[in-house]
Amino acid sequence: MNLFVASLLAALAGARSQCISQNDAMAPPASPDLTPLNDFGINLFRKVVSPSKNFIFSPFSVWSALTLTYFGSNGNTKSQMEQVLRLTNREDALATFKAVENIYTSRNNNYTIDTANRIYATETLTLKDCLQQVFSDKLKMLNFSNVDLVVETVNQFVSTTTRGKITSIVTPDIVKETAMILVNAIYFKGFWKRKFEAKDTIQRKIFISANEHVMVDMMHQYGEFKYGFSNELDAQVLEMPYRGNGASMYVFLPKDKKTGQELDDMLGRLNPDSLAAALRQLVYEDVVVRFPKFKFDSIVDDELKKALKALGITDLFSGASDLSNFAPRDKIAVSRVIHKAVIEVDEEGAEAAAVTAVIGAVIVSIQPPSPPVNFFCERPFFFAIVDTKLNNIPFMGTFRKP
Ligand SMILES: *[C@@H]1O[C@H](CO)[C@@H](O)[C@H](O)[C@H]1NC(C)=O
Ligand SMILES: *[C@@H]1O[C@H](CO)[C@@H](O)[C@H](O)[C@H]1NC(C)=O
């Protein structure tokens, strides 16, 4: 039988028994360190990023969906997943999962990150009885012969969790082949600490290749931002914080060399070390920011399975799959992993956020400060939304053209 992992994003529920680990009740760490996860995330991102289109991807979501699957694994399937997902054992993984869920459901003021998990299983599958307790509301048994019902139920869940941003992820074709579906959904909405003024947004050129441009709605502001230049990535780096200092968007704008390959060259050098080094050396500067307004979604289907296999998760997708910790008597392999993400970036900021920079100050100043840095996103760039408290990167993306 096939298991289908639909990954939009995630977090796992409280567990009380010894159902999926030796100690399901292990206390969640107050502040889980999600740094190891970024290794997995960046490696995976580089494998699945589209070479030609805008791309938005949540490695955290994929990690969450796979970790949920991991709780069902045994044997070689389990050790492969541990290695690739940077997990050590079920007890710790479960504690981390619970911690992440607690944090993302309780912290909710200046930005919103909603994650949710569901396992949908067909009524004919014999799951371990205790799973119903461990996963409580996360586990739903459905009649998978009734394809329309399953499609509607899963898509409704996804739509609710993403607040209507993603309205569908499964189709009847997908459900027909499946006995179990893992869905993991994420929604993020941040408000810029320093919002852009709508009146400053104008149509400007963005170079989509070395000598080809199109027009885009380009936002504009001048202010104090953390900024730096990464020699290793050969890119300007800007931090645009969301309200509350808990999350930021980091933008990586490769130096213009008129090749049209700058972004892809940079992605080739992107790894956990070069990323961390680039973020460490940012300092406050006066920056003139031009940043496009955009909204797009990405779906990764077959490429995701291929990439995960290339990283070392192979048994899970084959006849060698061992998910006996979920269903001891059924043979289940994962047939598909689908990931869909959406992003929308606009001027919106905190209501009445303080504007720190006063345009024109340079002119009247007796000792003019050094001229502002220009950060003009007028060519393709990479961005990462980082939860700076947990060092989690819920989203990574590239913008190539409007
Ligand atoms: C499951 O759904 C199919 C198709 O709608 C239906 O024929 C069948 O009776 C249902 N099974 C149960 C146990 O309700
Ligand atoms: C939300 O933002 C305000 C103002 O920046 C800050 O004082 C507050 O601590 C933030 N709340 C959280 C939970 O981060």
From TrEMBL:
<dbReference type="GO" id="GO:0005615">
    <property type="term" value="C:extracellular space"/>
</dbReference>
<feature type="signal peptide">
    <location>
        <begin position="1"/>
        <end position="17"/>
    </location>
</feature>
<dbReference type="GO" id="GO:0004867">
    <property type="term" value="F:serine-type endopeptidase inhibitor activity"/>
</dbReference>
<dbReference type="InterPro" id="IPR000215">
    <property type="entry name" value="Serpin_fam"/>
</dbReference>
<dbReference type="Pfam" id="PF00079">
    <property type="entry name" value="Serpin"/>
</dbReference>
<dbReference type="InterPro" id="IPR023796">
    <property type="entry name" value="Serpin_dom"/>
</dbReference>
<protein>
    <submittedName>
        <fullName>Serine type protease inhibitor</fullName>
    </submittedName>
</protein>
<feature type="domain" description="Serpin">
    <location>
        <begin position="42"/>
        <end position="402"/>
    </location>
</feature>
<dbReference type="InterPro" id="IPR042185">
    <property type="entry name" value="Serpin_sf_2"/>
</dbReference>
<keyword id="KW-0722">Serine protease inhibitor</keyword>
<keyword id="KW-0646">Protease inhibitor</keyword>
<dbReference type="InterPro" id="IPR042178">
    <property type="entry name" value="Serpin_sf_1"/>
</dbReference>
<keyword id="KW-0732">Signal</keyword>
<comment type="similarity">
    <text>Belongs to the serpin family.</text>
</comment>
<dbReference type="InterPro" id="IPR036186">
    <property type="entry name" value="Serpin_sf"/>
</dbReference>
